[in-house]
Amino acid sequence: MGQTHLGLVGLGxxxxxxxxxxxxxxxPIAVMTRNPERVTExxxxxxxLAEKITGCGNSAEALVEALEAPRTIxxxxxxxxxxxxxxxxxxxxxxxxxxxxxxxxANFHNTRRRGDxxxxxxxxxxxxxxxxxxxxxxxxPSIMVGGDPASYAPIKPVIEAISAKFEGExxxxxxxPDGAGHFVKTVHNGIEYADMQLIAETYGIxxxxxxxxxxxxxxxxxxxxAGNLNSYLMEISAKVLQAHDSxxxxxxVDVILDKAGQKGTGRxxxxxxxxxxxxxxxxxxxxxxxxxxADKPIREKAAVIFPETVSPNVDLSTEDMAAALLAGRIxxxxxxxxxxxxxxxxxxxxxxxxxxxxIWRAGCIIRSALLDDISNAFRSDLPDGRLLLAPxxxxxxxxxxxxxxxxxxxxxxxxxPIPAFSASLAWFDTMRKARGTTDLVQAxxxxxxxxxxxxxxxxxxxxHGPWWD
Length: 469
Ligand code: 6PG
Fold this sequence. Notes:
Shape: globular
Mean pLDDT: 97
Number of domains: 3
Bound molecules: 6-phosphogluconic acid
Strand order of the largest sheet: 3-2-1-4-5-6-7-10
CATH topology of the largest domain: N-(1-d-carboxylethyl)-l-norvaline Dehydrogenase, domain 2
Largest sheet: 8 strands, mixed
Radius of gyration: 25 Å
């Protein structure tokens, strides 16, 4: 066992996988978890990698003693109160200059708060987003690091070694101070929600509006995955739709209750977007759709009160469906990056958007062919830093939104809900109108509250309408 500076707390699925990944890359590591028997079991299952791992049972003292300063202790535990408890337990045992890394899906406000507490003691706190599920954690996740860059330096070689690689480059980087890493991960998840919802809506139209079987839709998704719609989520959706339930032999999706869960990151993306004066309508539609799905008993009653009154058929070519899905995905990314930029400006994080897109190209759940084009767009002269205006996406958006229009109109007439597509199209159409209708909203505000407005023929100022003369 070499000199160990690195510890990890939490041997659940993600913590175990990350520890094995770290050990396999040649870095010694000490581990502790709540249940000491789990440490024994984990080491017994680790095979030759156990040589690199020091078990410390459930003792924070033993963990800290096993490490040489400067120490870095990674927490891989569920987000929330348990992180506060562990910080309170471990922080007093650490020396100045030591670091705690929270690798869970924390709310970035908590990360900022915890960072302040640690900083007052001369210790560091890093909020680190890790994406890629269990397989990613074991074989190469995408890693989004925040916090003090100086505290990242000692673990940078470990983080880069264990991360996914895109054309040999690590999909891990320090993206900004304090909560930047966790904020980027939150927005990653928001985009993940939107992309999953767009794929599910596409499936819904093909299934309920065109009568295709899950197997056929899965096969179609497989062909799409070989083209410009290539993505991890497309790939797994194709596999899921072609899978069969071992108990009944039915398509696997047909035995799954249509009530989606959520742990909070998608919702936080929307909350933060609104707080920053932005709107992530495609992401909100996806979060909302999950919420509505959970209202199953009411949906069942409403289905009886409001039976189908229109033909459910949606007459649309698969080419149009694919083009609409690609445009929807571009718009979801555009909203996500816009929120990220707004937060980066507000909190003065100076996040490099191109770098974010680059480290999302492999390892994470939203990895897709599109991300290479997005990082190139950010690296080139992107007008106003907005993906919506990127020349690289103009053609796909032109073609795709024509298809989206047909899809949204046909789905509405057929009574098929596609909230994420509808919200995306409404956002796109709002943004491509140089003059909208909020002139009337401003007039209304001025009429009832004398809030004032800017005139089209004067710079700035607070003008009032003739209703005040
Ligand atoms: C990832 C995933 C991961 C997790 C989400 C799921 O990037 O690896 O996003 O973090 O699967 O938390 O979130 P929901 O349970 O809210 O869908």
